[in-house]
Sequence to fold (237 residues):
Amino acid sequence: MNGLQLTGRDRGHIVTLAEPPCQLHATAAEPFLAMRAAARRAGFDLVPISSFRDFERQRAIWNAKFRGERPALDRKGRPVNMPKLAEGARVEAILCWSALPGASRHHWGSEVDVADGNVIERGYTLRLEADEYRRGGPFGALSAWLSANMRRYGFYRPYASARRGVQPEPWHLSYAPVARGALAAMTTELLASAIRGNGVDGEAEILARLPEIRKRYVQDVDAPPRMRSRYARLSSR
Ligand SMILES: [Zn+2]
Fold:
């Protein structure tokens, strides 16, 4: 992937699937479909809730939160009154739950947020909160199945444990063969080039904090486990 692709500003690395509807890195599509087929045999309908997201989409989310047009929560899940905060504090508050435009792993196409479509079909409204994926929760069984099986297809959870930056996201899966190299390529310079002059609110505050933002919210993730399968190797396609 080139710098524009890594930061969501070029979609040359992305393929669009009709079934299930999603957009993934060309190399991640076949492994994802193989994992979905295995999940189906185990009784789950593994559906992507969110897959590739481009820079513009991430910027729209970011700017709406920055301006207080879209609700934002603090680390404890309490609503934040954005207009009352200084710009630096707004940046900090948004980062608790949303990635900086250009810095979202969803730009890579290797990332997919998943749920069990069978549960949603029965009328359950998804919140994308960690308790839904715990044992006894609506997606607890799917989550346990993924823990036991996803590495066979090259997938793992980068936000499994509580860290300094991103909160645990048990629904967020990452295709390691693509994500590993992408993460290594996310330099502060690359992130700065995506932010500078590209209409992201709080630009000056972001640029001033960028090395720290990168460390906390981009680099501080769980590393992929050891994987040994044909899907766990990066194919040259
Ligand atoms: Zn995600």
In short: The mean pLDDT is 95.
